[in-house]
Amino acid sequence: KVYKDEKTVVIKDKYPKARYHWLILPWDPISSLKSVTRDHLELLEHMHEVGQKMIEQCPARESLEFRLGYHAIPSMSQLHLHVISQDFDSPALKTKKHWNSFTTDFFLNSEDVIEMVRSKGKVKVKDHVSELLKLPLRCHRCKQQLSTIPQLKEHLRKHW
């Protein structure tokens, strides 16, 4: 546990996909984005603010970019917001599925989720979103396509 307040708890991801990778979980049992309604808007905004605080207190914040977001189809059944640095420098990043889950539209930006709930009252996940996990490996910075995860990791070093 890294941080907690009356609404959320922050933990380090057990299998971080970057140098900095936290999960922000609400104390309330909310299974996934599918269960989210307008009633959760304040909570989603709070989770986003907590994510921003995590970035602000990160010693490497000046040299790293971060994204805050949700997986369209999560791997665990409790709502959680990812706060992840964009270096993707981690031994736990092993598969195309891992990569694409953070670098395609499978990863829903926190602000977009908040806006969707504000305007539509729910989160609409596109049909066939899981197909995005099968896309070829592509650098999130320069869009160069790479064949393997080791090649991708080698390529990413150019962008640090």
From TrEMBL:
Q: Which GO terms describe its cellular component?
A: nucleolus; nucleoplasm
* Domain named HIT: residues: 1-93
GO biological process terms, semicolon-separated: single strand break repair
Highest taxon, organism lineage: Eukaryota
Q: Where in the cell is it found?
A: Nucleus, Nucleolus; Nucleus, Nucleoplasm
Q: Main localization of the protein?
A: nucleus
**What EC number(s) does the entry state?**
3.6.1.71, 3.6.1.72
EC top class, in one word? hydrolase
Q: Which GO terms describe its molecular function?
A: DNA 5'-adenosine monophosphate hydrolase activity; DNA-3'-diphospho-5'-guanosine diphosphatase activity; double-stranded RNA binding; mismatched DNA binding; single-strand break-containing DNA binding; single-stranded DNA binding; zinc ion binding
Q: Which Pfam families match?
A: DcpS_C, zf-C2HE
PROSITE patterns xref list: HIT_1, HIT_2, ZINC_FINGER_C2H2_1
Keywords noted in UniProt: DNA damage, DNA repair, DNA-binding, Hydrolase, Metal-binding, Nucleus, Zinc, Zinc-finger
Q: Which residues form the signal peptide?
A: none
Its recorded reaction(s) are:
a 5'-end adenosine-5'-diphospho-5'-2'-deoxyribonucleoside-DNA + H2O = a 5'-end 5'-phospho-2'-deoxyribonucleoside-DNA + AMP + 2 H(+); a 3'-end 2'-deoxyribonucleotide-3'-diphospho-5'-guanosine-DNA + H2O = a 3'-end 2'-deoxyribonucleotide 3'-phosphate-DNA + GMP + 2 H(+); a 5'-end adenosine-5'-diphospho-5'-ribonucleoside-2'-deoxyribonucleotide-DNA + H2O = a 5'-end 5'-phospho-ribonucleoside-2'-deoxyribonucleotide-DNA + AMP + 2 H(+)
Function description: DNA-binding protein involved in single-strand DNA break repair, double-strand DNA break repair and base excision repair. Resolves abortive DNA ligation intermediates formed either at base excision sites, or when DNA ligases attempt to repair non-ligatable breaks induced by reactive oxygen species. Catalyzes the release of adenylate groups covalently linked to 5'-phosphate termini, resulting in the production of 5'-phosphate termini that can be efficiently rejoined.
The protein's name: Aprataxin
Q: Which organism is it from?
A: Tyto alba (Barn owl)
